[in-house]
Amino acid sequence: xxxxxxxxxxxxxxxxxxxxxxxxxxxxxxxxxxxxxxxxxxxxxxxxxxxxxxxxxxxxxxxxxxxxxxxxxxxxxxxxxxxxxxxxxxxxxxxxxxxxxxxxxxxxxxxxxxxxxxxxxxxxxxxxxxxxxxxxxxxxxxxxxxxxxxxxxxxxxxxxxxxxxxxxxxxxxxxxxxxxxxxxxxxxxxxxxxxxxxxxxxxxxxxxxxxxxxxxxxxxxxxxxxxxxxxxxxxxxxxxxxxxxxxxxxxxxxxxxxxxxxxxxxxxxxxxxxxxxxxxxxxxxxxxxxxxxxxxxxxxxxxxxxxxxxxxxxxxxxxxxxxxxxxxxxxxxxxxxxxxxxxxxxxxxxxxxxxxxxxxxxxxxxx
Length: 367
What we know:
Blueprint: E1 9-14, H1 17-25, E2 34-37, E3 46-49, H2 51-54, H3 64-70, E4 75-77, H4 81-98, E5 102-106, E6 109-113, H5 124-139, E7 143-148, H6 151-158, E8 166-168, H7 174-178, H8 191-199, H9 205-209, H10 213-220, H11 222-231, E9 247-258, H12 261-282, E10 284-295, E11 300-311, H13 314-328, E12 336-348
Parallel strand pairs: 2-4, 7-8
Antiparallel strand pairs: 1-6, 1-7, 2-3, 5-6, 9-12, 10-11, 10-12
């Protein structure tokens, strides 16, 4: 494995991916504030916002209603995941033209190790530029790129100049680059960990460098030492080209709380159908079904069931979800604002699997 200092890592991140695909495919949206997500008249959530919409403060995961308040003249459209998946497949094929060392993170971003690339290009920045140009010329979409010697810094760099940005952080520049950034930029620091770090008086990455690592370990366990190393730009993780999707999921937030089981069944039937279509399209099957329920008071629970075999049929996913809903939740007793289903323990369609024979119920009556 190449020494960390000599590695050349690119993090490529598409710019406002869902919204950009919509603006490319429908010229009437070009140059306008566009929001991809749920309805602003209900409890929809923003999945993606164009840069014209972001100028008004609209961000992903914001409620669509709030987005509309920020920009009343914004255009709201529902997601077209088939279109995004098709574009994503083309993008990732372009990555593979440069290197086999590609680790997809989602539909619209990936790590590439271009230390030894197929183009024989010694400068990672030139590889990134070539990929950005190819994506734009062939797909009409733009990407931002970060280049450095570690995954951590490359990802930070890709977000530094958006859209269509390219930021290169050389090994000798790493510590100065990350020093003034907020601790929330450290890998794995969410709201809870950020609160702990703030309580210790640590607000910027540079603050961790003078803090006793033992004290960090007492507060955060092994994560404390990991964050301490990141504060100095140390990150030995490598690009993992064997990465593959671990789950599929979908959920719906309702315009009004649901009480009737029949309404919940209808919502879960739609999600199950969408999941089945995605599994079949990708030639995958799943063995574990997980139901997500959010009550009107925002309490959220998940309930899972592992089946005896891998499935992709909507009917079987729905039957499992309904069984969990009726036997493992308070559906019908408490109002519900959100329902979701995810499936995991995936198997490729052509992978070997134990054969299960199905018999009519009467077969078992004499046994």
